[in-house]
Design goal:
about 300 residues, alpha/beta, five-stranded parallel sheet, about 40% helix
């Protein structure tokens, strides 16, 4: 079982991002399997759509948000073994050439350890700030994946779609991972699960301990994903899963570890990304928290 942790990026931990390199190296030394970032380009004061597409509020913990690409680059330079993932980047907000360049750089610095996770997001204001149509974000994601595939696997590279256009250009600098870094995709709806089934190398679900732990729901979603993959002519075993575990304020490390072990036993999921931003205020506190979880999970 692989247990990874979020880098200091949001809430009060964001004010300690100068410790990112030290944190990353210490997590690797402690036996962590992976390090992760999320993505929040802005948190609207009066959001039309709330967190996760529900209601009309956004947790204040998301107001301070550090740059995910910079943090992954620092972590890449400070480590030699752990995987480096995004759970998730709101990928359609980024031009494909710039997104490919940033991720290629991180993958090369890390020697091929990048797990780029993408989602379409839920904030209309983030799309407005980028000058994009929120209602077409799903179609834009499809084109973005095609454009990244072209940029990462051909030279010269080009892409032409209904929403995205990449002129033919020299593209000799490629990621270390061949033929390209894997596409991990966040998905809860049937439409999004179909995208994972058709073209995802990995699926990125989530739970929150203890407020939202629906193991039966995870099993049902994975069963649905497997069937959709078979319908698309793919082997479901080719689609990995990394489960994000958000920790609610006041939750003990014992409860987190017990939940991780129960989910693993009941679902077979063997890679977990744990985020303490709602529960732990400092980077040092997050590191001690992570070490304790690793110890408890290892006890079996």
């Amino acid at each position: 079982m692989k247990t990874g942790f979020a880098l200091p990026q949001f809430h009060r931990q964001a004010y300690g991002i100068a410790q990112t390199g030290t944190f990353a190296a210490a997590i690797e030394e402690a036996g962590g399997a992976s390090l992760w970032v999320g993505d929040r380009n802005l948190a609207a004061v009066r959001p039309i759509v709330g967190y996760g597409g529900q209601g009309n509020t956004i947790p204040e913990e998301l107001n301070p948000a550090a740059d995910p690409f910079v943090l992954l680059g620092i972590a890449a330079a400070a480590t030699s073994r752990v995987l480096l993932g995004s759970h998730v980047l709101v990928a359609p907000l980024y031009p494909p050439v710039q997104l490919a360049r940033s991720l290629t750089t991180i993958d090369l610095i890390s020697g091929g350890r990048l797990l780029p996770g993408f989602g379409v997001g839920w904030s209309p204001e983030e799309y407005r700030a980028a000058g994009l149509d929120f209602t077409r974000r799903g179609a834009r994601m499809e084109e973005l994946l095609d454009a990244l595939d072209a940029i990462w696997t051909t030279d010269p590279a080009r892409y032409e779609g209904a929403q995205l256009s990449v002129p033919e250009h020299h593209s000799p600098l490629k990621p270390a991972r061949k033929p390209r870094p894997p596409f991990y995709l966040g998905a809860m709806s049937e439409r999004a699960l179909r995208r994972v089934a058709r073209r995802g190398d990995g699926w990125l679900p989530l739970i929150a301990v203890p407020g939202y732990v629906d193991i039966d729901g995870l099993v049902a979603q994975r069963t649905q994903l497997d069937e959709l993959a078979r319908q698309a002519g793919r082997d479901p075993r080719a689609i990995d899963t990394v489960l994000r575990v958000n920790i609610d304020a006041g939750t003990s490390t014992e409860q987190v570890a017990d939940t991780v072990k129960e989910v693993h036993e009941r679902t077979g999921i063997d890679h977990f990304m744990i985020d303490s931003m709602y529960d732990v205020d400092t980077v040092d506190g997050s590191l001690e928290h992570a070490r304790e979880i690793l110890r408890l999970v290892a006890k079996g």
